[in-house]
């Protein structure tokens, strides 16, 4: 309410000063300006109150990690090579062939939620000599070891991966091939995937065939804190990162039409192979989001979702492939388009000149 009053006051003040400096404006212009400013003030007030968040401690993992991994009363359970210290939950040490995870014991039944992940990836390996990465999960299954960043393949639910090793690039190098500029990625790379229990994660291609989208994120061996932000609201999945030490979120992916069932488990896992890193979770903070919905959105929210899915997934992936056009491809596309337009203009002029000449002959 205070925000709305403040915004309306600022709008009124701006309107008054504008009238004093522009005495020649018509009455209609004054009315229009006043309506616009009042509408903006009301929009700002609504945006401030459109969404409220509440920390859910039973789904959050924070210091001092009391009872984690050692007490049946704890809300979180350790698996594999993971361990708890005073500063972090270490999913894997900087050693070869390790995997570990931490999983919530309680299923989450929230419709709209937001997970803020404070993590750290560091080790002795130099660039591209480290691996393999970590994952944040919201899945039907829990406490299952496997090859997908320390979790099972063919999972059911959502996985957000911080992939630090370019498997596809190394595979192509071994075959003496190269990435095309259209498809090349910069690692580490953050991507998201929704699985329905029958979709396999393609390790050789770094999950490219099944990804919803992603972004590069240089997160290794940084001296400042790094964060990952996952929001699921109104069936829309948003992932952002804060890795520059500026306390500013950067967009990574934003996908509408994501359908995730309720009652799944949150978790985090990591794996190392021939190459390794320390994969640390410093905190997982889950917020319940209270969102204003239209009647139609409320009806949609009441529909029971039993299998994770993404609307128009085929169109989404077609769009991703088209977005990756190289600079050379764009140049030739523009060039040939211009030549085509020029050719059409020339043909049009020739046709017009012949038509004009024939028309003159008919009059003489």
UniProtKB/TrEMBL annotation:
Q: Which residues cross the membrane?
A: 328-352
InterPro entries for the chain: ConA-like_dom_sf, Intracellular_Lectin-GPT, Lectin_leg
The identity of this protein, by name, is Lectin, mannose-binding 2-like a
Q: How does it sit in the membrane?
A: Single-pass type I membrane protein; Single-pass membrane protein
Tagged with keyword Transcription? no
Among the Pfam families in the record, one is Lectin_leg-like
* Domain of life of the source: Eukaryota
Which GO molecular function annotation, any one, does this entry have? metal ion binding
Q: Which GO terms describe its cellular component?
A: COPII-coated ER to Golgi transport vesicle; endoplasmic reticulum membrane; endoplasmic reticulum-Golgi intermediate compartment; Golgi membrane
Protein keywords: Disulfide bond, Glycoprotein, Golgi apparatus, Lectin, Membrane, Metal-binding, Signal, Transmembrane, Transmembrane helix
Q: Which residues form the L-type lectin-like domain?
A: 53-289
Q: Which Gene3D superfamilies match?
A: 2.60.120.200
Q: Where in the cell is it found?
A: Endomembrane system; Golgi apparatus membrane
Q: Tell whether Lyase is among the UniProt keywords.
A: no
GO annotation terms (biological process): endoplasmic reticulum to Golgi vesicle-mediated transport
**The encoding gene:** LMAN2L
């Amino acid at each position: 309410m205070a925000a709305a009053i403040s915004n309306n006051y600022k709008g009124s003040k701006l309107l008054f000063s504008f009238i004093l400096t522009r005495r020649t404006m018509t009455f209609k212009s004054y009315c229009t300006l006043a309506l616009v400013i009042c509408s903006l003030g009301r929009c700002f007030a609504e945006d401030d109150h459109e969404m409220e968040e509440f920390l859910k401690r039973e789904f959050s993992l924070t210091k001092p990690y009391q009872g984690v991994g050692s007490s049946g009363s704890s809300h979180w359970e350790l698996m594999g090579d993971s361990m708890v210290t005073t500063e972090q939950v270490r999913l894997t040490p900087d050693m070869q062939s390790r995997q570990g995870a931490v999983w919530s014991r309680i299923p989450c039944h929230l419709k709209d939620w937001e997970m803020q992940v404070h993590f750290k990836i560091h080790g002795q390996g130099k660039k591209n000599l480290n691996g393999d990465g970590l994952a944040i999960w919201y899945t039907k299954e829990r406490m299952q070891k496997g090859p997908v960043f320390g979790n099972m393949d063919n999972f059911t639910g959502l996985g957000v991966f911080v992939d630090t090793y370019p498997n596809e690039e190394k595979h192509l190098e071994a075959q003496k091939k190269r990435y095309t500029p259209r498809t090349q990625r910069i690692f580490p790379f953050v991507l998201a995937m929704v699985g329905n229990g029958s979709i396999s994660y393609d390790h050789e291609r770094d999950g490219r065939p099944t990804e919803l989208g992603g972004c590069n994120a240089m997160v290794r061996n940084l001296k400042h804190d790094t964060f990952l932000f996952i929001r699921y609201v109104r069936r829309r999945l948003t992932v952002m990162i804060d890795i520059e030490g500026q306390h500013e979120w950067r967009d990574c992916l934003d996908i509408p039409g994501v359908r995730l069932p309720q009652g799944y488990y949150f978790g985090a896992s990591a794996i190392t192979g021939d190459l390794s890193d320390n994969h640390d979770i410093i905190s997982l903070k889950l917020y319940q989001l209270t969102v204003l919905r239209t009647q139609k959105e409320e009806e949609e929210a009441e529909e029971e979702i039993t299998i994770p899915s993404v609307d128009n997934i085929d169109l989404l992936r077609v769009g991703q492939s088209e977005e990756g056009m190289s600079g050379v491809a764009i140049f030739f596309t523009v060039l040939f388009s211009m030549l085509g337009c020029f050719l059409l203009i020339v043909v049009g002029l020739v046709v017009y000149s012949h038509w004009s000449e024939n028309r003159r002959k008919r009059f003489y």
